[in-house]
Every structure is written in C-alpha cells, then in structure tokens.
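User: Predict the complex with adenosine-5'-[phenylalaninyl-phosphate].
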Amino acid sequence: MSDTLDVDGLVEQARAAVAAATTTEEIREVIASVAGKKSPIAQAGRSLGGLEPDARKELGQKLHAARAVIEQLVEERRSQISAEELARDMEAGRIDLTEFIEGSIPAPATRGHLHLVTQTRDALEDVFVGMGFEVAEGPEIETDWFNFGALNIPPAHPARGMWDTFYLDLGAPESTLLRTHTSPVQIHLMEEAVSSGGLPIHAVMPGRCYRRDTPDARHLPVFHQIEGLVVDKGITFADLAGTIEVFTSAYFGPDIHSRLRPAYFPFTEPSAEFEVTCTICHGEGCRTCSQTGWIELGGCGMVDPAVFGAVGIDPDQWTGFAFGFGIDRCAQMRHQIADMRALIENDIRFLRQF
Ligand code: FA5
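Assistant: Here is the predicted structure with adenosine-5'-[phenylalaninyl-phosphate] placed in the model:
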C-alpha cells in the first residue's frame, strides 16, 4: 500500500472537499470522509503494521503530517462556516426599530385641548377678573320672569321680538324657556345681594344661550355670552365706557378699535351697542360684517330703575351699568374666523389651529 498511496494527493483531495463545504452539515460529512475511520488516511494508518520498519516510519511520518494539515484545513473552514451562518441568521432575524408599518401598531394616544370657545371664555374671565370683577353663573333654563319680566319686558312687549325664544313644554304655556341671553343672571345676583346684604356687585357671568336664530356667518342657535353687572354708589356712563375701552384693548390688543352707538334695550337706559372693527376685512366691508366694516359684539347701558324696582334695590341710593357680549363673536373677531359655523362643525383640522 505504501508504494501506491499518494499522500499528497489525498491532502489535495481533502483541501478541495473542505473548500467546497458551505454548511455545518456538509463540513461534518467532509470530516468523516477525509479524516474519519473509513477515510483513506485512517485505512493507511491501520496498514502500517504490515510494513518494513523504514517504510513504516516514512509513511507514518507522512500520514501524521497529512492528518495535521487536513485537521487545520477542516478547523479553519468550520470556523469560517459558523461565522457565515451566524451572520446569515442575524440578518434574517434583524428587526428595524426605526420604522413601523402604519396600522401594525396602535397610534400613540394624542392629547386634545379645550375648544376655542372655552379658551375664549377663560381668557375673557381672566381679563375681567384682572379688572376686579367676580365670576358668577346662572341656570340655562329660566322662567319668563327672569328672562323677560324682571328685565322690564312684560308679556306682549314688542321688545320680546328681539329674542326669538325656545319655550319648554313645562308648566303654563310659555312660562319656562331656554334663556335667550345671560341678562337673567343679573336678576339672580341682585336678588341674592338684596336678601344677603351683598351689595355692591361687580360681576361677570359667562354662559350658554339659545335662540331660534338661523345659523349664518355671525349667528348660531346655541351660542355664548358674557354678562357684566356693576351696582354701586355713584356709578356713571363714563365708568361703563371706560370699562369697555379697557376690556377691548386688554382682550383684542391696541390694533382693534371699538365704538358705542345708541341702541335700545328695555333693561338699560341709556343703552348702547358695542362694536369693533371687523378683523376679517379690517374695516373695508365684507360678507362677515355685511359690508359695514364693524361687528357688533354686544349691548350695554345703565341699569334701568324699573329693573332695580323689580328686585327691590333703591335706585336713589344705587346706580349701575350692565353689558352682554357674544363670546363666540369675540373668538371670531380675535381669530379672524370668517364664518362662525366653523366653531360647531367639529372639523378637527380647524379646531387644532387654536
Ligand atoms: C342681548 O342679548 C342683551 N342681553 C345684551 C345686554 C346686556 C344689553 C346688558 C344691555 C345690558 P343682543 O341680542 O344684541 O343683546 O346680543 C348681544 C350679543 O350676543 C350680540 O352682539 C352677539 O355678539 C351675541 N349674539 C346674539 N345672538 C347671537 C347668535 N345667535 N349667535 C352668536 N352670537 C349671538
């Protein structure tokens, strides 16, 4: 066998087989075939005993060297293959944490915020509290007496036409209603003050109001007003005008001008309408302000002695002024919202802007 065995050839065959193996499984088979019990080298080793001493020594050394080379080749290839397999496994199991497929995981919860009208009410309250007013509230469901009678608007008074009213099917016909303005809260405050000795009064009263108004660019059937009432000694129209002036520049800033125009309200005398420059057209005239360049924010005036009489306040001792503004109107003018209906359409793209 020693004569015919080509040890170098066996090493070259082993080198080629080892190099061709690409997986752990294949390299294991290659090891068995080039270095296992049935491999040519192992068989040659087992035949050494039948050789002459010199030939045995020579072939023994050759086989030993060949085994060492093959073992090294196998070891190198095996660690190469396991590194390649590890890299392949890692690539296959890779998770890209920098991206996610939309819809595959729930969107993070988004935090909402207060509606623009609520923000506006809070801002208006802040302005008036800063001027020394207290904040009070009253009911949205009223009797005819609070909404009209005590405010010097008896049944069948033509001024009732100023407020197209939602009546409730409760009690005598047209005796209970959704308040058409916040002015009835004046009556509640004055009655309380009279019964508890709580005069003078310096209060603002924000809240929701209801009218059978057709929605348009400046009107909603459900809207908000903030009422103001001062009852004290020696109060004059100058106090009212000054209060409105201070409020206007505190809330709208110095660029917005206001004006008072004579008006009629049964519960104030004299009465005025309070208007600001239309912020949509800057006074040029547009659809929002019906081409006038001005937007009416509210009404105001000196408390009529007939109202003091209805609640039992002595008009010879006390005088006062009152006002009532639209909160939605204030939001509209402050944020240049051409159509007030946007406030109740709940379009999140609109609401998100504020
Ligand atoms: C009144 O409601 C009186 N109570 C105001 C008042 C109070 C006068 C105290 C004198 C003393 P008027 O109907 O004009 O007035 O409404 C006042 C404001 O409420 C309007 O200028 C407007 O800004 C707002 N407003 C009235 N109706 C609507 C509506 N349908 N939608 C939105 N805002 C409205």
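The CA atoms of residues 94 and 159 lie 78 Å apart.
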